[in-house]
Structure formats: C-alpha cells, structure tokens
Amino acid sequence: MHARKSVPLGGVLFLMIIISACASPQKSGVGRGVPEGERVPETLAILPFENNSVTDPEKYEPLSRGLSAMLITDINQSQTALKVIERNKIAALLKEIALSQTGSVDESTAVRAGKILGAQSIAFGSFIVLGSSVRIDIRIINVETSELIMAESISGSNTAFMQLERDLAEKIANSLKVAFKPKTAPTRSPIDAALYFSRGVDAFDKGNGTEAKRLFQQCIDLDPSYKRQVDNIQGLQ
Predict the structure, then answer these.
(1) What mean pLDDT, rounded, does the chain reach?
(2) Please, are residues 236 and 213 in contact by the beta-carbon 8 Å criterion?
(3) Cα–Cα distance between 236 and 216 in angstroms, integer?
(4) pLDDT number for residue 24
C-alpha cells in the first residue's frame, strides 16, 4: 500500500479562498447602503428671513422675502444636483399656515413647513441691519431627522449686500455638498437696490404687478446685475 501524502492545511485554506472569490465576485457599491447620517438631502426649501434690524426696521422688512428669493435664484442657476423649492410654493404655504403674520420661525415650525413642501432640508434665519453693517444668520435642518446641517453667520457692509448674499449661497451649497458656480460676479451697490428688488417681490406676491414692475425697474436702474433676479420671478409679465 502506498502512503497518502498529506496536503498542508494552509494550502487547503488558500485554495478555498480562491475558489470562493471566483464563484462569488463582489460588485462594488451594490447592496451597500449609505448610513442615514451621511445622506445628503436632495431638496431644499428656503423660508423668508426674520427681520431683527435695529436701524429703521420697517424700512428693511421687505428684505425678509427678497433675500430668500435671491438665494433661491443663485442656488438654482448655479448647479443642478440640488432641487430648490420654488418661491411661489413657499409663499402659498406661508399664507396657508399664517406663518408670515408672526415673522418668526423656530425649528419645529421649519420642520413642519418642510414636510408640507416635500423638502428634505429647510433653511431659515434672520438678518440685522445696524447702521452701515449687515449680519445674516442661517440654519439648515434635515426635515426627516431634525438634525442640524448648517449654522452660519456672515456680516459686512450694506454696500456689499449682493456679495454677502452670494457668500451665503455658497455656504449653503457647500453644506449640502453640491457645486456652486454663479453665472455672474457680485457687484458693490447700495443696499437700496436690494430694497427695491425686495419691495418688488412683496408687491408681486400681493398681486400688484404694475407696482412690482416699477420697483424692479428702479432696482435695475441702480444695479443692472439684479436683472437676472427679476427675470426669475415667475409669472412676471
């Protein structure tokens, strides 16, 4: 009888691993779920900002809607990966839940509004005009988890309001991991241009198209770069 030659145990294990790998190839990315905390929201709603101005607060109240309208335009027109809820849908919601009457938004109200709008994330905040300075605070909340995505503050001169708004739009985009490529460069113009635009938005929302056109034209006369913002107001004839 011939003695059997034993195969080293290490060699057997090696062969089994090779056979298993060949029989069941791994497909990269398939079946691998993304952890809930790492998912980036794909839809965003930006609510009007609360006016906490110390200097002539009534004068700057229109910026509440105007600032959010500017952010919606800049984020929408700079990339396609993130869907930003249309401003007119937000305006309709504000009337429905009477949010615009208080002018104040807390986290629970923001989450509620986001769910109604079908947004996965929602941005809300406030601004302060004090003399020649402007400060804008913003928070972004994950509507599904109530997790804080972003909390930022920016400040600067009121003669650079468009630059502040553009910087804020970029911070929003970065926090949601989407590209931000604005089509035009921001300009230095008096805050009055932003006010004319904002008052035009307010007049338009109230159904006064004639007054809205007049105010928008005054805005463009002061700073032609606002024309892109004016053109984005849906339904303006």
Answers:
(1) 81
(2) yes
(3) 10
(4) 39
